[in-house]
Amino acid sequence: MADLAVDLPDESAMIALGRRLARHVRIGDVIALEGGLGAGKTTLARGLLEALGLQGEAPSPSFAIVQPYDVPEVRVPVTHVDLYRLDDVAEADELALGDYLMDGLLLIEWPDRLGTSLWPHSLRLTIEILEDGARRLTADVPDAWTDRWSQI
Known about the structure:
Keywords: ATP-binding, Cytoplasm, Magnesium, Metal-binding, Nucleotide-binding, tRNA processing
Low-confidence stretches: none
Pfam families: TsaE
Distance between the termini: 16 Å
Strand content: 25-35%
Subcellular location: Cytoplasm
CATH architecture: 3-Layer(aba) Sandwich
Number of strands: 7
Number of domains: 1
Family: Belongs to the TsaE family.
CATH topology: Rossmann fold
CATH class: Alpha Beta
Order of helices and strands: EHEHEEHEEEH
Protein name: tRNA threonylcarbamoyladenosine biosynthesis protein TsaE
Radius of gyration: 14 Å
Number of helices: 4
Helix content: 10-25%
Mean pLDDT: 91
Strand order of the largest sheet: 1-7-6-2-5-4-3
């Protein structure tokens, strides 16, 4: 796995990164979005979903926890998950997230709530807020993403 950092000066840069990611996603992928409140996880997700064809703004799945998007709404089925409100790993297990990987991709905010259960082929994107308000995204790129990440 390689760690790579990208500085994103504003919200439009975060959305653009999500759009570029969308060009390379495959069924069975997991994209784990880490970072504090307001870091830009949902913004990146919105850019990805928009590039996959979603019309209108994607709501944050904070309250629904699991927000599925299916064809024809998007060109690849996506399950957008926000685990922030979960208290323990057992609650995450009840969501049976692995089932969504059979025919789509998982986009997970707050993946730390899964404990050590995150899939090893997951693309882990950690977003840090810099002093000037810009963001630094650090990508933990697994082998499954090595070739694709170099094109993003």
